[in-house]
Description:
The structure holds two protein chains of two kinds. Chain A has helices at about 5, 10-15, 15-30, 75-95, 120-125, 175-190, and strands spanning about 60-65, 70, 100, 130-140, 140-150, 160-170, 200-205, 220-225, 235, 240-245, 255-260, 265-270, 275-280, 285-290, 295-300, 310-315, 320, 330-335, 340-345, 355-360, 365, 375-380, 385-390, 395-400, 410, 420-425, 430-435, 440-445, 455, 460-465. By secondary structure, chain A is mainly beta. In chain A, the strands form seven sheets. In chain A, strands 1, 2, 3, 4, 5 and 6 form a six-stranded mixed β-sheet that branches. In chain A, strands 9-8-7-30 form a four-stranded antiparallel β-sheet, with no helix packed on it. In chain A, strands 10-11-12-13 form a four-stranded antiparallel β-sheet, with no helix packed on it. The N and C termini of chain A lie close together (about 5 Å). Chain B is of the alpha+beta class. Chain B contains seven helices and four strands. In chain B, helix 6 links the parallel strand 2 and strand 3. The two termini of chain B are about 55 Å apart. At the A-B interface, strand 18 of A face helix 4, helix 6 and strand 3 of B.
Amino acid sequence: MMPDTARSTPRVIRLLPAVVVAAFVTLGARAQQPAPAATPAPQQPDEIRTVITSEGGSAPRLAVPEFIALTKDAETQAIARTITQTLFDDLTFEREFALVPRDIYATIPAATSFADVPFDRWRELNADGLVIGTVQKLPTGIKIEVRLFDVRSRQPVPPSAFAKEYSGSAANPRLYAHTMSDEIHQTQRGLRGVARTKLVFDSDRDAERMTGTIESRSVKEIYMADYDGESQRRLTVQKSLNITPTWSPDARSIAYSSYRRGQPNIFISNIYQGTLEELTKIAGNNFTPSWSPDGTRLCFASTRDGNTELYVVNRDGSNLRRLTNHPASDITPTWSPSGTQIAFTSDRTGTPQIYIVGADGLGLQKLTSEPYADRATWSPAPLNEIAYAARTGPGMDIKVMSLATREVRQLTFGEGTNESPSWAPNGRHLAFTSTRSGKTQIFTIARDGKNLKQITKTGNNYQPDWSR
Amino acid sequence: MRIRSAALIMLMSGLTIAACGKKAPPVSRPAPPPLANASTAPPTRPPAPPEPVAEPTIVPPEPVPNDSISSASLDDLNRNSPLKPAFFEYDSAELAAPAQAALTENAAVLKRYPSWTITIEGHCDERGTAEYNLALGERRAVAARTYLVSLGIPADRLRTVSYGKEFPFDSGHDDPAYAKNRRAHFVITAK
């Protein structure tokens, strides 16, 4: 995403804070008018690099009291509440901080500005850091300021380890919280957070019926959601079966298989332009697209030459090249983070297993020896792991293989059937589908198997892909 | 030719007489001499009957079999399809004897209605993964197609599409349901 560059250059931020902030919020909040940076950015201390630590080396304890609504109207107060709750959840998600539970905040008097924060009282709660923010309504939108104070500094006004000002539209307050969370994780923990990433998946939730078939068949359309399951939105109106959606690396396009022409072909929806491209137009079945890490190529499975083989093609449909050549079926490719290798599923030994091949078609190696394995997803560097769905009994479970040691660990254990894993861009989480709650739903789970979270609840939802 | 010239002469003479009669002044004047041919030609004989033209007899086409199948709409056809599904074992695209028998019957139907084009849908039960089942369903559809081609059905009438486990015919989660869902399903797309 574009904001990465802005975040990784603190010097630029210091020199041009207002410009960067305005550009930043504009980039993050699509279709919002950039609010003019009317007020000069506040003087910021030079020690922006201060990092909050805990005393024992465990996760620093943070408290996130309710953001202060500087304008007292109901809308601003609602925005302040939304931002506080979302930021609390975002900071909890990565488990880099221990969050002081919200239910004891009520015992501490609420601040009305940065000037009257009762730091003594927060120290009593053994907090290491305190995230305080203000929300102000402007004629053009809202302005938000946030500071992260080092509560353990024992100074009357502790130094702030992080200070930032944002302004923009009031349409999506959650985006401000996600942005703060990502920046706090980046500056405090050197971690690329995922609070602004999104999930794409297909779903039958709208229960629309296919036309032209005798059997009652439900269409599946493509939907997206924030990483935490909020802001779910439908993206396609193909009135057909649309499956295996996958994000382009810039998270502005989605490639997927659609049966709108009868046989499945790969389409690319440019979701912020509202345009549709057809990547494969010839006969045959075309499945499971996967973007190269630089976004210039896609690998997909096609039956155009007789049986299911893998092909690589430029994003504009040119320079088609066949990657595999075997009478068995090859399907479900995923690129290595460097773009030099592709992991995929093949049943050339009789059962589906995960293989790796160079992007030039050379250097094939078999990876798994499971009863049944499919849908590999290659973790981002430097973790170098491949997650996949493997048969463990009547159903499937999610497993992770370290490519360095070939050791396999299991993340789910027979609760329903668990399929279609997809790594988060920082490699710390996976999205997958599970039938453990009845219908097929999308869940996220940490890479150690903890922090299971249900993302979808309506209809059946399948084949999640996590944006970069 | 002879008939036609005789008729022409008679027609011309008649016209002449009529024209003369119409234009003749009422004064006495010697009548013009009658046309030589009209007065002197012997009366023509009645024309001979037309000679029969030898043309091959048109044989009406063999009537389209007047059965319920040929008169039904595509939807009705597919609702009570004369084409039987071929069922498969778990995780297999092999055509067992019952599947071969079903395909042999289907081939006979397709030969009887040579204008039909067919889509062969490959389906899977829900126990495999969604992605790999797309490949498995494709193999099932292709296996059925290959068998029909070997029985003499032109390949260009048979299109394959894999639906993986997207559209189970029986939504149950037990073996009888799974058995129904592992199939090559035939849809008539044109007739």
